[in-house]
Amino acid sequence: MKTQKSEAVLKFDGREITLPVIIGTEGDKGLDISRMRKETGLVTIDPGFVNTASCFSQITYIDGEKGILRYRGYPIQELAAKETFVDVAYLLVHGALPTEKERMDFSSLLNRNSLLHEDMRHFFDSFPQGAHPMHILSTMVNAMAAFYPNVDVHTTARNIEHSCARVISIVRTIAAFAYKKSIGEPIVYPRHDLSYCANFLNMMFDSPVRPYHISPEAVRLLNVLFIVHADHEQNCSTTAVRAIGSAQVNLYATIAAGISALSGPLHGGANQAVIEQLRMIQADGDIGKFIRKAKDKDDPFRLMGFGHRVYKAYDPRAEIVRNECEKYLAATGIHDPLLDLAHRIEEIARNDSYFIERKLYPNVDFYTGILYRAMGIPENMFTVMFALARLPGWVAHWREMISDTTKIVRPRQIYVGRTLQKLDDGAERLPADLLV
Ligand code: SDX
Fold first, then answer.
1. C-alpha R_g of the chain
2. Rounded to the nearest whole angstrom, what is the distance from the C-alpha of residue 309 to the centroid of ligand 1?
3. What distance in Å separates the CA atoms of residue 46 and residue 21, rounded to the nearest whole number?
4. Residue 426: is its pLDDT beyond 70?
5. What residues form DSSP beta bridges with 306?
6. Residue among 233, 306, 367 to mutate when testing ligand 1 (max atoms within 8 A of CB)
7. How far is residue 48's CA from residue 55's CA, in Å, rounded to a whole number?
């Protein structure tokens, strides 16, 4: 890891200590406070870790001010235009794009691990009709630990390789099975003669009575959508994966935690929330009212798909998705009034001082749902699509974490509760009866 060092001086309580500053390969600087508590008794306070780097990582680089996103140094725009999702998954997990042989071996490993254990199929029958597919997905992935060899920090490199491929491949099968079960159609099994994305579309839309025509354009589009969602450094769900994984929990339970974190409407759940919000605004007809609500500090309403913890410029992924969305709808002749509404809202927000001052731009979720709708993906599957795409990122960070550290994630706190209390030994207060 090529880093440079500088230093910072901390003065506190009449004392002065010098702390190292680590400078990353792209110039980001971090104050290393490993010695601070021991030497000064101080800890840092940073709710939401807005200003805190939790680790060193070589996987993804984001420059939020410039709207830059790179996976292992490659710009997202180039990867989305020229690579397949499987090659990008290999890049994220293994650190380099695959050679032809590595690509064949990886695809074969994904195929060999695409079938869900038949006994797990019956789990779907136990979920109530209408169960959200993200809840099904996290439950099923967690249950994989009962059906597949354990994979944690102590396992063999070969088992890690196979288990990571299994997660990236079988979770796609589980997602498609969950969809088929939700619409009461027979499940469609994965096929070894189809590519990763073509397989998923076929498992989603093929039917015994209506064979699905796999459109090359839909496959290309799904590769692009999966690539732009594949990783995003230390976002909430990846942080959950690293934290849970640091306790040496098996990979499946760790990924299930990532899926759960991603389901939140402030995170991956935003792509479904955007469509719900656009429909609500469309039905109401008064865009200005909702823009005012979004700006009102006393109103919990937020413009879903807008704003980002890191990007203070246009999310480069949103730009790719918006362009693909416009191209696909034009090419297929689909007119979606929600796209017109989204454009209108973006135009208003980008000329409004509230959004300009806070550097609030569309993020990856703002246009994604409109494109999924055009592709026939049902709304309750939007966040599942995000989870499938993020699997290589979560797996890459888990592997990086287990190879880098054995430290369990356990932050400190500043206690602001009651000081020492004594139980009142006055006669009027009898000890609680432990039996009732
Ligand atoms: C993803 O981290 C990642 O990388 C995530 C992700 C990934 O790939 O993993 O990129 C995927 O989760 C994208 C984000 C999807 N979520 C949404 O679209 C939900 C709507 N967005 C907001 O809730 C918000 O912007 C967050 C959650 C995304 C970011 O929240 P922050 O960083 O904690 O920012 P903040 O809430 O402190 O906002 C700063 C200011 C506040 O106003 P002031 O208090 O300064 O007056 O901006 C305002 C906020 O009120 N603000 C918004 C807003 N987002 C921020 N105001 C109205 N609408 C919004 N959407």
1. 24
2. 6
3. 18
4. no
5. 362
6. 306
7. 15
What single string gives the DSSP state of each residue in 320-343?
A: HHHHHHHHHHHHHT---HHHHHHH
Local structure of 370: helix, strand or coil: helix
Out of 365, 397, 404, 424, which one is annotated catalytic? 365
Ligand 1, atom nearest to 237 Cα: 9
Q: Give which of 293, 297, 282, 267 is closest to 349, Cα–Cα.
A: 293
Q: Return the closest-CA partner of residue 301 out of 309, 293, 292.
A: 293
* 401-425: b (≥16 Cβ within 10 Å) or e: bbeeeeeebeeeeeeeeeeeeeeee
Annotation marks residue 308 as catalytic: yes
Q: Which of 402, 144, 382 is nearest to 262 (CA)?
A: 382
Give yes or no: 119 in active site: no
| Pocket flag, ligand 1, residue 253 (CB < 6 Å) | no
Distance 28 CA to ligand 1 centre (A): 22
Which amino acid, residue 75?
A: P
C-alpha span between 382 and 114 (Å, rounded): 21
Could you report the per-residue pLDDT of 205-258, keeping only the tens digit for each? 999 999 999 999 999 999 999 999 999 999 999 999 999 999 999 999 999 999
Classified as helix, coil or strand, 349 is helix
Q: What is the enclosing helix (H) or strand (E) of 180?
A: helix 157-182
pLDDT (average), residues 325-333:
94
Q: Which atom of ligand 1 is nearest to the CA of 233?
A: 4
Q: Do strands 29-31 and 74-75 pair parallel, antiparallel, or not at all (unpaired)?
A: unpaired
Q: Which residues of 32-42 are buried (b: 16+ CB within 10 A; e: fewer)?
A: ebeebeeebee
- Torsional sign, CA 212, 216, 221, 226: positive
Helix (H/G/I), strand (E/B), else coil: 18: strand
Dig out the tokens for 254 from the structure: 């760790």
> Do residues 345 and 287 touch, judged by C-beta distance below 8 A?
yes
Given a cut of 80, is residue 427 above it in pLDDT?
no
As a whole number of angstroms, the distance between CA 238 and CA 157 comes to: 22
Is the pTM for the entire model greater than 0.70? yes
Give the distance (Å) from ligand 1 centre to CA of residue 93: 28
Given strand 29-31, what is the order of strands in its sheet?
4-12, 15-23, 29-31
* CA–centroid distance, residue 42 to ligand 1 (Å): 30
Residue type at 407 in one-letter notation: K
